[in-house]
Amino acid sequence: MNKGLAIGNNKVNLLPFSGWMVVFVLVPIALVVYYAFTDVDGFTLENLKWVGTYGKTLWLSVVLAFYATAICLLLAYPIAYSMSRASARVQRNATLIIMLPMWMNFLVRTYAWMTLLEDTGLINSALRAIFGMDFPGLRLINNHGAIVLGMVYNYLPYMILPIYTSMTKIGTSLIEAARDLGANGAQVLGRVILPLSVPGIISGITMVFIPSISTFIISKILGGGKDYLIGDLIEDYFLGNSGVVNYNIGAALSLTIMVMILAATFIMNHFDKDASTSGGGVI
Amino acid sequence: MKKLLKVYNVLIGLFLYAPIFVIVFFSFNSGSSRASFEGFSLQWYAELFEDQLILKSLYYSVIIAVLSALIATVIGTLAAIGINALKGWKKSAYLAVNNIPVVNPDIVTAISMMILFVFVLGKFNSMEMGFGTLLIAHITFNIPYVVLSVLPKLRGMDPNIYYAALDLGCPPLKSFVKVVIPQIMPGIISGLIMAFTLSLDDFVISYFNSGSTFQTLPITIYSMTKKPYNLKLNALSTILFAVVLALMLIVNLKKPKKAERKP
């Protein structure tokens, strides 16, 4: 590119943005850090020690988010692939079909899953009607599986769409060339399509893992409220739903999530050297 | 293999739409149970339109979404023009700051702003969270998406068109409005639409920053789900879903000719 596009006074263009982001993004994050390391008496590490006592909750959040992300990836990949190979019309309609459920309020959709999964719910009733017997051992709700299902359901589109976008960028000619050179189906998939869809996979993983690890509603509705996740803890400490309001511990927990996500992003960027050149920007 | 893939796609479709069917189906329930269907009726639709709380919060949601999307689009478009003209570390720094609300989990963005609002409002005893804090919060998480959707359009634009207009004697502001804006309009529009929908749909950030007097629709829905579940919510969701579906179909039917063109 030759000369960049400079319009008017660039400082003036950036001023509202800079001012807004400093006051409403950077200052609040600085406040989170400040609250995490202080209490009424000043500097302290007590809040972080508190976070340590929630080790089990943190671990559960990471594990469930990991499962949800892995399942989303496995479910999304074949869909994204078949979409990217379809005609323009089918591609457009498929995108629409995938996006459409996201327009329904996610709380209402999650409650609908409750209707499907609970002991007297639709799935259990259907099984009872088909087999003429009860399945007392079959618990579909109020367990970790149900929480993961809720996450997978809510965030699957965020995995499908970026992978699909990255696959549409792979030209048909490239795949034909691989075939002409003697690659079989598995080789085309493993050595051409998979490597070229890495940017999409990375952005899909990020877009599923981050909301999964920080959710606080899905665990309440589908997990029966007995399994706290880190998001539930933060909610409680800030809104005092369980009787205690403590911004400092809440801030320390939030800081922990931020650091974990930062670390995860850092590790993933390591795998994806092309992401910066291909522009990312898949939303 | 192809057949298998087709079956698989249909199964995923069923998975995505199973809850939607449940919601629509039970919105016509004559009983009040979320899980056992007693008979067909439209009573929940009738009750929905008498529920002042729901209607009011829908109205509030739309106001917040329109205002925050418009303000974020102005700030974000200007910022995208500014960032596009930057180079090197300055550009990276601006983009990094822009990405913070995108990458941060919603709950962290939410509580960080809540801390700020509580801190500042604590200095003025009479004020509490409400319209103002909610609008600020929504603008904040909308701006980055506008920037991200306008930037690629600016990058793809030939700057010489703008300089040509200047050379031909068109004043800068007029050149900007007549030459640059039309070029980047698709990015601005998609940013605006994205901001509007994100704002309309937001629950987490509003939940922590709305206070008790000014509640948007997702907040009202949440408070209603905590009481015995009310099928009015199904009726409401069904209507909203039908509206979106209709809009999408209209948009989709209108543009096939253009979209068929390969880049």
Name a few traits of the molecule:
heterodimer, A: mainly alpha, MetI-like fold, two-stranded antiparallel sheet, 2 strands, globular, B: 263 residues, disordered C terminus
Overview of the molecule:
The complex is a heterodimer of chains A (283) and B (263). With 283 residues, chain A is mostly helical. Chain A has a domain at 54-223: Orthogonal Bundle (MetI-like fold). Chain A is 72% helix and 1% strand. Chain A has helices at residues 10-36, 46-53, 55-84, 88-99, 106-117, 122-131, 144-168, 172-180, 185-196, 198-213, 218-222, 230-239, 247-271, 275-278; strands at 38-39, 42-43. Chain A has a two-stranded antiparallel sheet. In chain A, helix 7 (144-168) packs antiparallel against helix 10, helix 10 (198-213) packs antiparallel against helix 13 (247-271) and helix 12 (230-239) runs antiparallel to helix 13. Chain A is globular, with a radius of gyration of 23 Å. Chain B is mainly α and 263 residues long. Chain B has a domain at 49-231: MetI-like fold (Orthogonal Bundle), CATH 1.10.3720.10. Chain B contains twelve helices and no strands. Chain B has helices spanning 2-26, 43-48, 52-85, 88-103, 106-123, 131-155, 159-167, 172-201, 204-209, 217-226, 232-254, 256-259. In chain B, helix 3 (52-85) packs across helix 8 (172-201), helix 3 packs across helix 10 and helix 6 packs across helix 8. Chain B is globular, with a radius of gyration of 23 Å. Chain B starts with a helix and ends with a helix. The model of chain B is unreliable at 258-263 (pLDDT under 50).
